[in-house]
Amino acid sequence: MRTRHRARLETLERKDRYRRRVEPVAPFLVLAVTLAVGVTLGVLHNRWRAQNRPDPVLAGVRLAIFPFQYAGARAGGVFSTVGDWLFGGKRLSDQNRRLRAEIARLKQENQALRADAAEAARLREQLGFSQKVGRPLLAAQVIGQFTSPLFDTITVARGARDGVTLSMVARTPDGLVGQVSDVSALSSQVLLLTDANSGVGGMVVRGGKIQGVGIVQGGGRTRPLQIVYLKREDDIRIGDLVVSSGYGGVVPANIPVGRVTAVAEDRARFLKSAQIRPATALLNAREVFLLR
Amino acid sequence: MNTPGTRAILGLCLLLGVAAALQGLLAPHLFRWGGQPDFVFPVVMTAALLSDASLGCLLGLGGGLLTGALVGETVGTFLVTRTFAGFAAGSFAQRMFRANLGVAVLSVIVASVVSESLYILSAPRVGFQKWLWSALIGTAWNAVLAVPATLILRRLGWGWGRL
Protein backbone atom coordinates (compact mmCIF):
# COMPACT_ATOMS: atom_id res chain seq x y z
CA MET A 1 0.00 0.00 0.00
CA ARG A 2 2.78 2.36 1.06
CA THR A 3 4.87 1.41 -2.02
CA ARG A 4 1.95 2.18 -4.33
CA HIS A 5 1.43 5.48 -2.61
CA ARG A 6 5.12 6.35 -2.97
CA ALA A 7 5.08 5.40 -6.66
CA ARG A 8 2.09 7.63 -7.26
CA LEU A 9 3.78 10.46 -5.39
CA GLU A 10 6.90 10.05 -7.54
CA THR A 11 4.85 10.14 -10.73
CA LEU A 12 3.14 13.31 -9.59
CA GLU A 13 6.48 14.86 -8.70
CA ARG A 14 7.88 13.91 -12.10
CA LYS A 15 4.88 15.44 -13.81
CA ASP A 16 5.23 18.58 -11.73
CA ARG A 17 8.94 18.88 -12.55
CA TYR A 18 8.15 18.41 -16.24
CA ARG A 19 5.35 21.02 -16.08
CA ARG A 20 7.66 23.48 -14.31
CA ARG A 21 10.32 22.94 -16.96
CA VAL A 22 7.99 23.14 -19.98
CA GLU A 23 5.41 25.73 -18.87
CA PRO A 24 7.66 28.80 -19.04
CA VAL A 25 9.03 27.71 -22.44
CA ALA A 26 5.69 26.67 -24.00
CA PRO A 27 4.53 30.17 -25.08
CA PHE A 28 7.88 30.74 -26.79
CA LEU A 29 7.60 27.43 -28.61
CA VAL A 30 4.09 28.38 -29.76
CA LEU A 31 5.42 31.79 -30.82
CA ALA A 32 8.22 30.16 -32.84
CA VAL A 33 5.83 27.75 -34.60
CA THR A 34 3.26 30.50 -35.29
CA LEU A 35 5.95 32.80 -36.65
CA ALA A 36 7.24 30.02 -38.89
CA VAL A 37 3.70 29.55 -40.24
CA GLY A 38 3.34 33.34 -40.73
CA VAL A 39 6.66 33.69 -42.54
CA THR A 40 5.88 30.69 -44.77
CA LEU A 41 2.47 32.12 -45.70
CA GLY A 42 4.06 35.52 -46.39
CA VAL A 43 6.76 34.01 -48.62
CA LEU A 44 4.19 31.92 -50.48
CA HIS A 45 1.97 34.98 -50.95
CA ASN A 46 4.85 36.92 -52.51
CA ARG A 47 5.79 33.95 -54.71
CA TRP A 48 2.20 33.53 -55.96
CA ARG A 49 1.96 37.24 -56.61
CA ALA A 50 5.21 37.22 -58.60
CA GLN A 51 3.75 34.40 -60.70
CA ASN A 52 0.53 36.43 -61.15
CA ARG A 53 -1.46 33.77 -59.32
CA PRO A 54 -4.06 34.46 -56.62
CA ASP A 55 -3.25 33.52 -53.01
CA PRO A 56 -5.59 30.63 -52.00
CA VAL A 57 -5.16 31.28 -48.26
CA LEU A 58 -6.19 34.94 -48.47
CA ALA A 59 -8.91 33.96 -50.94
CA GLY A 60 -10.34 31.67 -48.25
CA VAL A 61 -10.28 34.43 -45.64
CA ARG A 62 -11.93 36.84 -48.09
CA LEU A 63 -14.61 34.29 -48.81
CA ALA A 64 -15.33 34.06 -45.07
CA ILE A 65 -15.65 37.83 -44.57
CA PHE A 66 -17.49 38.48 -47.85
CA PRO A 67 -21.03 38.15 -46.33
CA PHE A 68 -20.15 40.76 -43.68
CA GLN A 69 -18.66 43.17 -46.23
CA TYR A 70 -21.55 42.71 -48.67
CA ALA A 71 -24.20 43.13 -45.98
CA GLY A 72 -22.35 46.18 -44.63
CA ALA A 73 -22.17 47.79 -48.08
CA ARG A 74 -25.89 47.13 -48.67
CA ALA A 75 -26.76 48.56 -45.26
CA GLY A 76 -24.56 51.60 -45.94
CA GLY A 77 -26.34 52.12 -49.28
CA VAL A 78 -29.77 51.95 -47.59
CA PHE A 79 -28.71 54.44 -44.88
CA SER A 80 -27.34 56.79 -47.51
CA THR A 81 -30.56 56.59 -49.58
CA VAL A 82 -32.76 57.18 -46.53
CA GLY A 83 -30.52 60.10 -45.54
CA ASP A 84 -30.92 61.56 -49.04
CA TRP A 85 -34.71 61.23 -48.82
CA LEU A 86 -34.86 62.88 -45.42
CA PHE A 87 -32.20 65.56 -45.55
CA GLY A 88 -31.14 65.86 -49.18
CA GLY A 89 -33.62 68.56 -50.34
CA LYS A 90 -31.35 71.49 -51.25
CA ARG A 91 -28.37 69.31 -52.09
CA LEU A 92 -30.47 67.21 -54.49
CA SER A 93 -31.95 70.24 -56.25
CA ASP A 94 -28.42 71.67 -56.68
CA GLN A 95 -27.25 68.31 -57.97
CA ASN A 96 -30.21 68.17 -60.41
CA ARG A 97 -29.35 71.59 -61.79
CA ARG A 98 -25.69 70.57 -62.20
CA LEU A 99 -26.66 67.31 -63.88
CA ARG A 100 -29.04 69.04 -66.33
CA ALA A 101 -26.23 71.37 -67.37
CA GLU A 102 -23.88 68.39 -67.66
CA ILE A 103 -26.39 66.49 -69.85
CA ALA A 104 -26.71 69.47 -72.20
CA ARG A 105 -22.90 69.71 -72.47
CA LEU A 106 -22.52 65.97 -73.00
CA LYS A 107 -25.22 65.91 -75.70
CA GLN A 108 -23.25 68.51 -77.66
CA GLU A 109 -20.01 66.64 -77.09
CA ASN A 110 -21.65 63.36 -78.09
CA GLN A 111 -22.84 64.81 -81.41
CA ALA A 112 -19.32 66.07 -82.17
CA LEU A 113 -17.79 62.73 -81.18
CA ARG A 114 -20.25 60.78 -83.34
CA ALA A 115 -19.26 62.90 -86.32
CA ASP A 116 -15.55 62.35 -85.52
CA ALA A 117 -16.09 58.60 -85.06
CA ALA A 118 -17.87 58.32 -88.40
CA GLU A 119 -15.03 60.21 -90.09
CA ALA A 120 -12.41 58.07 -88.30
CA ALA A 121 -14.18 54.86 -89.36
CA ARG A 122 -14.29 56.07 -92.99
CA LEU A 123 -10.57 56.98 -92.98
CA ARG A 124 -9.71 53.69 -91.23
CA GLU A 125 -11.54 51.80 -93.95
CA GLN A 126 -9.81 53.77 -96.71
CA LEU A 127 -6.37 53.06 -95.16
CA GLY A 128 -7.21 49.38 -94.57
CA PHE A 129 -6.79 49.58 -90.75
CA SER A 130 -8.59 47.07 -88.53
CA GLN A 131 -11.70 48.25 -86.70
CA LYS A 132 -11.23 49.11 -83.00
CA VAL A 133 -13.64 47.29 -80.72
CA GLY A 134 -14.37 48.55 -77.16
CA ARG A 135 -13.64 46.12 -74.33
CA PRO A 136 -16.72 44.78 -72.51
CA LEU A 137 -17.32 46.14 -69.02
CA LEU A 138 -18.19 44.27 -65.83
CA ALA A 139 -20.01 46.36 -63.21
CA ALA A 140 -18.75 45.75 -59.66
CA GLN A 141 -20.11 47.08 -56.36
CA VAL A 142 -17.53 48.55 -53.96
CA ILE A 143 -17.84 46.70 -50.61
CA GLY A 144 -14.76 48.05 -48.85
CA GLN A 145 -12.28 50.84 -49.38
CA PHE A 146 -9.05 52.27 -47.94
CA THR A 147 -8.73 49.57 -45.27
CA SER A 148 -5.22 50.80 -44.37
CA PRO A 149 -3.92 54.36 -44.03
CA LEU A 150 -0.73 53.29 -45.84
CA PHE A 151 -2.24 51.68 -48.95
CA ASP A 152 -4.98 52.83 -51.29
CA THR A 153 -7.04 49.77 -52.18
CA ILE A 154 -10.72 48.99 -52.60
CA THR A 155 -12.60 45.69 -52.50
CA VAL A 156 -15.25 44.96 -55.11
CA ALA A 157 -17.97 42.30 -55.06
CA ARG A 158 -16.76 40.50 -58.20
CA GLY A 159 -14.27 37.69 -58.22
CA ALA A 160 -12.87 34.73 -60.15
CA ARG A 161 -16.41 33.31 -60.42
CA ASP A 162 -17.37 36.37 -62.52
CA GLY A 163 -14.28 36.09 -64.71
CA VAL A 164 -12.13 38.65 -62.89
CA THR A 165 -8.39 38.13 -63.38
CA LEU A 166 -5.30 39.87 -62.00
CA SER A 167 -4.30 43.20 -63.63
CA MET A 168 -7.79 43.91 -65.00
CA VAL A 169 -8.37 47.66 -65.26
CA ALA A 170 -11.01 49.34 -63.07
CA ARG A 171 -12.70 52.58 -64.10
CA THR A 172 -15.83 54.65 -63.57
CA PRO A 173 -17.65 56.72 -66.20
CA ASP A 174 -15.50 59.65 -64.97
CA GLY A 175 -12.11 58.02 -65.38
CA LEU A 176 -9.44 55.52 -64.35
CA VAL A 177 -9.61 53.94 -60.88
CA GLY A 178 -6.82 51.34 -60.76
CA GLN A 179 -5.94 47.73 -61.43
CA VAL A 180 -7.01 44.42 -59.87
CA SER A 181 -4.21 43.28 -57.56
CA ASP A 182 -5.75 40.20 -55.91
CA VAL A 183 -8.66 37.92 -56.75
CA SER A 184 -10.74 35.52 -54.66
CA ALA A 185 -13.87 33.60 -55.61
CA LEU A 186 -16.44 36.32 -54.83
CA SER A 187 -14.43 39.52 -54.39
CA SER A 188 -11.32 41.27 -55.72
CA GLN A 189 -8.85 43.83 -54.50
CA VAL A 190 -8.15 46.88 -56.68
CA LEU A 191 -4.93 48.85 -56.20
CA LEU A 192 -5.93 52.46 -56.79
CA LEU A 193 -4.24 54.92 -59.08
CA THR A 194 -3.53 57.11 -56.04
CA ASP A 195 -1.56 54.44 -54.15
CA ALA A 196 2.08 55.35 -53.57
CA ASN A 197 3.17 52.11 -55.30
CA SER A 198 1.00 52.67 -58.36
CA GLY A 199 2.37 53.84 -61.72
CA VAL A 200 0.51 54.19 -65.04
CA GLY A 201 1.64 55.61 -68.37
CA GLY A 202 -0.08 58.96 -68.92
CA MET A 203 -0.17 61.87 -71.34
CA VAL A 204 -1.22 65.48 -71.02
CA VAL A 205 -3.77 66.51 -73.65
CA ARG A 206 -5.14 69.93 -74.62
CA GLY A 207 -7.62 70.46 -77.46
CA GLY A 208 -7.05 66.90 -78.71
CA LYS A 209 -3.27 67.48 -78.99
CA ILE A 210 -0.69 65.63 -76.89
CA GLN A 211 1.36 68.12 -74.85
CA GLY A 212 3.57 65.66 -72.96
CA VAL A 213 4.02 62.03 -72.02
CA GLY A 214 5.04 60.74 -68.59
CA ILE A 215 4.20 58.39 -65.73
CA VAL A 216 1.24 58.99 -63.43
CA GLN A 217 2.37 58.27 -59.86
CA GLY A 218 0.20 58.05 -56.78
CA GLY A 219 1.13 59.68 -53.50
CA GLY A 220 -1.33 58.06 -51.11
CA ARG A 221 -3.97 60.08 -49.31
CA THR A 222 -1.56 62.68 -47.94
CA ARG A 223 0.23 63.61 -51.19
CA PRO A 224 -1.30 64.55 -54.54
CA LEU A 225 -1.43 62.38 -57.63
CA GLN A 226 1.15 63.58 -60.17
CA ILE A 227 2.51 62.97 -63.63
CA VAL A 228 6.32 62.84 -63.64
CA TYR A 229 9.14 62.59 -66.23
CA LEU A 230 7.61 65.21 -68.52
CA LYS A 231 10.14 66.98 -70.77
CA ARG A 232 11.22 70.48 -69.81
CA GLU A 233 9.99 71.90 -73.13
CA ASP A 234 6.51 70.32 -72.79
CA ASP A 235 3.84 73.01 -72.70
CA ILE A 236 1.78 71.96 -69.66
CA ARG A 237 -0.85 74.29 -68.24
CA ILE A 238 -3.19 74.22 -65.30
CA GLY A 239 -6.51 72.68 -66.33
CA ASP A 240 -4.98 70.38 -68.99
CA LEU A 241 -6.49 66.90 -69.17
CA VAL A 242 -4.35 63.88 -68.27
CA VAL A 243 -5.32 60.57 -69.88
CA SER A 244 -3.77 57.10 -69.89
CA SER A 245 -1.20 56.66 -72.67
CA GLY A 246 -1.68 52.92 -73.18
CA TYR A 247 2.10 52.49 -73.58
CA GLY A 248 2.39 49.96 -70.73
CA GLY A 249 0.14 47.59 -72.64
CA VAL A 250 -2.17 46.89 -69.68
CA VAL A 251 -4.23 50.07 -69.28
CA PRO A 252 -5.95 51.10 -72.55
CA ALA A 253 -5.21 54.55 -73.95
CA ASN A 254 -7.35 57.65 -73.50
CA ILE A 255 -9.04 56.86 -70.18
CA PRO A 256 -9.25 60.17 -68.24
CA VAL A 257 -6.99 60.31 -65.18
CA GLY A 258 -7.60 63.88 -64.01
CA ARG A 259 -6.80 67.54 -64.56
CA VAL A 260 -3.52 69.39 -63.96
CA THR A 261 -3.66 71.62 -60.89
CA ALA A 262 0.02 72.69 -60.63
CA VAL A 263 3.21 72.39 -62.69
CA ALA A 264 6.76 72.20 -61.30
CA GLU A 265 10.27 71.77 -62.73
CA ASP A 266 12.79 69.50 -61.03
CA ARG A 267 15.92 70.94 -59.39
CA ALA A 268 18.19 70.13 -62.32
CA ARG A 269 15.60 71.70 -64.69
CA PHE A 270 15.73 68.72 -67.03
CA LEU A 271 12.28 67.40 -66.30
CA LYS A 272 8.85 68.63 -65.30
CA SER A 273 6.10 67.19 -63.18
CA ALA A 274 2.48 68.20 -62.70
CA GLN A 275 0.02 67.65 -59.89
CA ILE A 276 -3.30 66.12 -60.88
CA ARG A 277 -6.79 66.25 -59.39
CA PRO A 278 -8.22 62.73 -60.01
CA ALA A 279 -11.17 62.52 -62.40
CA THR A 280 -12.94 60.04 -60.11
CA ALA A 281 -13.88 60.77 -56.48
CA LEU A 282 -12.33 57.52 -55.24
CA LEU A 283 -13.49 57.71 -51.62
CA ASN A 284 -17.17 57.86 -52.49
CA ALA A 285 -17.20 55.50 -55.48
CA ARG A 286 -19.98 52.93 -54.96
CA GLU A 287 -19.53 51.08 -58.22
CA VAL A 288 -16.69 50.60 -60.68
CA PHE A 289 -16.41 48.89 -64.04
CA LEU A 290 -13.80 46.24 -64.73
CA LEU A 291 -12.48 46.08 -68.30
CA ARG A 292 -12.48 42.50 -69.50
CA MET B 1 -4.60 28.14 -20.39
CA ASN B 2 -7.75 30.20 -20.06
CA THR B 3 -9.67 28.20 -22.70
CA PRO B 4 -12.66 30.03 -24.19
CA GLY B 5 -15.96 28.23 -24.74
CA THR B 6 -17.79 27.67 -28.04
CA ARG B 7 -20.05 30.69 -27.47
CA ALA B 8 -17.01 32.89 -26.88
CA ILE B 9 -15.25 31.64 -30.03
CA LEU B 10 -18.35 32.08 -32.20
CA GLY B 11 -18.88 35.53 -30.71
CA LEU B 12 -15.28 36.49 -31.49
CA CYS B 13 -15.66 35.28 -35.11
CA LEU B 14 -18.84 37.33 -35.48
CA LEU B 15 -17.18 40.37 -33.94
CA LEU B 16 -14.20 40.01 -36.30
CA GLY B 17 -16.56 39.82 -39.29
CA VAL B 18 -18.29 43.02 -38.19
CA ALA B 19 -14.89 44.67 -37.58
CA ALA B 20 -13.76 43.65 -41.10
CA ALA B 21 -16.90 45.19 -42.63
CA LEU B 22 -16.49 48.40 -40.61
CA GLN B 23 -12.84 48.61 -41.68
CA GLY B 24 -13.86 49.00 -45.31
CA LEU B 25 -16.93 51.14 -44.73
CA LEU B 26 -16.33 53.44 -41.76
CA ALA B 27 -12.56 53.63 -41.22
CA PRO B 28 -11.74 55.62 -44.42
CA HIS B 29 -14.23 58.32 -43.41
CA LEU B 30 -12.40 58.71 -40.07
CA PHE B 31 -9.04 59.29 -41.79
CA ARG B 32 -7.38 62.37 -40.20
CA TRP B 33 -3.74 63.54 -40.05
CA GLY B 34 -2.50 60.48 -41.92
CA GLY B 35 -4.13 57.86 -39.70
CA GLN B 36 -7.39 55.98 -39.23
CA PRO B 37 -8.77 53.33 -36.87
CA ASP B 38 -8.06 49.63 -37.34
CA PHE B 39 -11.18 47.90 -36.06
CA VAL B 40 -9.71 44.40 -36.32
CA PHE B 41 -6.56 45.03 -34.24
CA PRO B 42 -8.19 45.99 -30.88
CA VAL B 43 -10.60 43.04 -31.10
CA VAL B 44 -7.78 40.55 -31.70
CA MET B 45 -5.49 42.08 -29.08
CA THR B 46 -8.22 42.25 -26.45
CA ALA B 47 -9.02 38.59 -27.08
CA ALA B 48 -5.29 37.83 -26.69
CA LEU B 49 -5.21 39.86 -23.48
CA LEU B 50 -8.15 37.88 -22.11
CA SER B 51 -6.41 34.57 -22.84
CA ASP B 52 -2.63 34.03 -22.58
CA ALA B 53 0.61 34.32 -24.56
CA SER B 54 0.20 31.01 -26.45
CA LEU B 55 -3.37 31.65 -27.57
CA GLY B 56 -2.38 35.27 -28.14
CA CYS B 57 0.11 34.13 -30.82
CA LEU B 58 -2.58 32.16 -32.65
CA LEU B 59 -5.08 35.02 -32.38
CA GLY B 60 -2.41 37.41 -33.63
CA LEU B 61 -1.73 35.19 -36.64
CA GLY B 62 -5.47 35.05 -37.38
CA GLY B 63 -5.72 38.83 -37.05
CA GLY B 64 -2.75 39.22 -39.40
CA LEU B 65 -4.44 37.00 -41.98
CA LEU B 66 -7.64 39.04 -41.73
CA THR B 67 -5.80 42.36 -42.05
CA GLY B 68 -3.73 40.95 -44.93
CA ALA B 69 -6.93 39.87 -46.69
CA LEU B 70 -8.48 43.31 -46.19
CA VAL B 71 -5.45 45.36 -47.25
CA GLY B 72 -3.95 42.99 -49.82
CA GLU B 73 -0.43 44.44 -49.40
CA THR B 74 2.57 43.48 -47.17
CA VAL B 75 0.71 40.35 -46.07
CA GLY B 76 3.77 38.59 -44.59
CA THR B 77 4.58 41.66 -42.51
CA PHE B 78 1.05 41.80 -41.12
CA LEU B 79 1.24 38.10 -40.21
CA VAL B 80 4.53 38.46 -38.34
CA THR B 81 3.81 41.78 -36.60
CA ARG B 82 0.34 40.72 -35.44
CA THR B 83 1.69 37.41 -34.12
CA PHE B 84 4.28 39.26 -32.03
CA ALA B 85 1.65 41.76 -30.89
CA GLY B 86 -0.70 38.93 -29.83
CA PHE B 87 2.15 37.33 -27.88
CA ALA B 88 2.96 40.68 -26.25
CA ALA B 89 -0.68 41.31 -25.27
CA GLY B 90 -1.06 37.78 -23.85
CA SER B 91 2.24 37.95 -21.92
CA PHE B 92 1.43 41.44 -20.64
CA ALA B 93 -1.86 40.27 -19.18
CA GLN B 94 -0.23 37.20 -17.58
CA ARG B 95 2.23 39.41 -15.70
CA MET B 96 -0.41 41.74 -14.30
CA PHE B 97 -1.28 41.36 -10.64
CA ARG B 98 -4.80 42.73 -11.16
CA ALA B 99 -6.35 43.45 -14.52
CA ASN B 100 -9.06 45.98 -15.36
CA LEU B 101 -10.18 48.15 -18.30
CA GLY B 102 -7.16 50.42 -17.82
CA VAL B 103 -4.87 47.43 -18.18
CA ALA B 104 -6.76 46.40 -21.34
CA VAL B 105 -6.15 49.83 -22.85
CA LEU B 106 -2.50 49.79 -21.76
CA SER B 107 -1.86 46.34 -23.17
CA VAL B 108 -3.46 47.22 -26.51
CA ILE B 109 -1.19 50.29 -26.63
CA VAL B 110 1.85 48.07 -25.90
CA ALA B 111 0.72 45.62 -28.59
CA SER B 112 0.23 48.50 -31.08
CA VAL B 113 3.71 49.85 -30.37
CA VAL B 114 5.24 46.36 -30.79
CA SER B 115 3.31 45.75 -34.02
CA GLU B 116 3.98 49.18 -35.58
CA SER B 117 7.70 49.16 -34.66
CA LEU B 118 8.17 45.73 -36.23
CA TYR B 119 6.13 46.85 -39.25
CA ILE B 120 8.37 49.76 -40.15
CA LEU B 121 11.46 47.60 -39.61
CA SER B 122 10.23 44.99 -42.06
CA ALA B 123 8.33 46.98 -44.72
CA PRO B 124 10.67 49.57 -46.19
CA ARG B 125 8.26 50.45 -49.05
CA VAL B 126 6.37 52.77 -46.68
CA GLY B 127 7.86 56.20 -45.97
CA PHE B 128 8.93 56.85 -42.34
CA GLN B 129 6.92 60.04 -41.82
CA LYS B 130 3.82 58.52 -43.35
CA TRP B 131 4.20 55.47 -41.11
CA LEU B 132 4.84 57.60 -37.99
CA TRP B 133 1.58 59.54 -38.30
CA SER B 134 -0.37 56.45 -39.21
CA ALA B 135 1.13 54.60 -36.20
CA LEU B 136 0.44 57.44 -33.74
CA ILE B 137 -3.15 58.02 -34.82
CA GLY B 138 -3.73 54.27 -35.17
CA THR B 139 -2.43 53.59 -31.62
CA ALA B 140 -4.71 56.30 -30.20
CA TRP B 141 -7.70 54.77 -32.00
CA ASN B 142 -6.73 51.28 -30.81
CA ALA B 143 -6.63 52.51 -27.20
CA VAL B 144 -10.13 53.97 -27.55
CA LEU B 145 -11.56 50.91 -29.32
CA ALA B 146 -10.03 48.55 -26.73
CA VAL B 147 -12.71 49.60 -24.21
CA PRO B 148 -15.81 48.49 -26.17
CA ALA B 149 -13.93 45.45 -27.52
CA THR B 150 -13.08 44.32 -23.95
CA LEU B 151 -16.62 44.89 -22.70
CA ILE B 152 -18.16 42.98 -25.62
CA LEU B 153 -15.69 40.08 -25.38
CA ARG B 154 -16.22 39.79 -21.62
CA ARG B 155 -19.95 39.70 -22.18
CA LEU B 156 -19.46 36.93 -24.72
CA GLY B 157 -17.67 34.93 -22.05
CA TRP B 158 -14.16 35.40 -23.39
CA GLY B 159 -11.57 35.08 -20.63
CA TRP B 160 -14.23 35.10 -17.95
CA GLY B 161 -12.66 35.47 -14.52
CA ARG B 162 -9.46 37.13 -15.69
CA LEU B 163 -10.66 40.74 -15.81
How large is the count of helical segments of chain A? 4
The run of helices and strands of chain A is HHHHEEEEEEEEEEEE
Task: Output the strand order for the largest sheet of chain A.
Answer: 1-2-5-4-3-12
Shape annotation of chain B? globular
Task: Kindly report how far apart the N and C termini of chain B lie.
Answer: 15 Å
- Helix content bin of chain A: 40-55%
Low-confidence stretches of chain A: none
Brief write-up:
Chain A is built from four helices and twelve strands, in the order H-H-H-H-E-E-E-E-E-E-E-E-E-E-E-E. Chain A has 292 residues and is α+β, with helices and mostly antiparallel strands. In chain A, the strands form two sheets. A six-stranded antiparallel barrel of chain A has the order 1-2-5-4-3-12. A six-stranded antiparallel beta barrel of chain A has the order 6-7-8-11-10-9.
Task: Give a written overview of the molecule.
The complex is a heterodimer of chains A (292) and B (163). In chain A, a hairpin with a 2-residue loop joins strand 6 (199-206) and strand 7. Chain A is built from four helices and twelve strands. In chain A, 34% of the residues are buried. Chain A is of the alpha+beta class. Chain B has 163 residues and is an all-alpha fold. In chain B, helix 1 (6-25) packs antiparallel against helix 2, helix 2 packs parallel to helix 4 and helix 2 (40-49) packs across helix 6. The longest helix of chain B has 28 residues, at 128-155. The radius of gyration of chain B is 15 Å and the shape is globular. Classes of the chains: A alpha+beta (292), B mainly alpha (163). At the A-B interface, helix 2, helix 3 and strand 1 of A face helix 1, helix 3, helix 4 and helix 6 of B.
